[in-house]
Amino acid sequence: MSDTIHIELTINGAAKSADIDPRLLLVEAIRDTFGYKGTHIGCLTGDCGACTIELNGEIEKSCLVLAASADGGEIRTIEGIAPDDGGLHPVQQAFWDEYGFQCGYCLPGMLFAALDLIESNPTPDEAQIRHAISGNYCRCTGYNNIVTSIQTAAQRMAAAK
């Protein structure tokens, strides 16, 4: 019996494969095996959102997923949010402009929550934004600027349509 298993993933559009311990968490594989350091290891209980990614089109907290169960999947990390032209996604730009991040710990969870919300509701109000980000902890307590950032992003994205 082998101590490792082989997995194949697509991360931010690039094919990746590795032989891993079957007990390895997806967050650990993303960071340590494949080198995407923007996905943070936080609580390891799914409470903080620092490890948030998109797996097969769905927002997931990667500390709650075994890497082996993602075999064959498509992953987008925080590094994959920006467009290929080197600029920032409108949500990222709004976070920059409105000081929506400080230490960056919460950024994966906040950005993916914002993207998911704006995709399903292009004009969210403050209560909807606060509900959407409620599964993420900001250690710097910058929630007001985060809400403002998401409002700005939604307005800009609606105006660009």
Structure report:
With 161 residues, the chain is an alpha+beta fold. The protein has 5 helices and 5 strands, in the order ββαβββαααα. It has helices at residues 26-33, 90-97, 107-120, 126-132, 143-160, and strands spanning 5-11, 14-20, 52-55, 58-61, 74-76. It has a 5-stranded mixed beta sheet, with helices on both faces. Helix 2 (90-97) crosses helix 5 (143-160).
- CATH class (first level) name of the largest domain: Alpha Beta
**CATH superfamily membership of the largest domain, which one?**
Beta-grasp domain
Helix and strand string, N-terminal first? EEHEEEHHHH
The CATH architecture classification of the largest domain is: Roll
Question: What topology emerges from the helices and strands here?
Answer:
Layout: E1 5-11, E2 14-20, H1 26-33, E3 52-55, E4 58-61, E5 74-76, H2 90-97, H3 107-120, H4 126-132, H5 143-160
Parallel strand pairs: 1-5
Antiparallel strand pairs: 1-2, 3-4, 3-5
Helix pairs in contact: 2-5
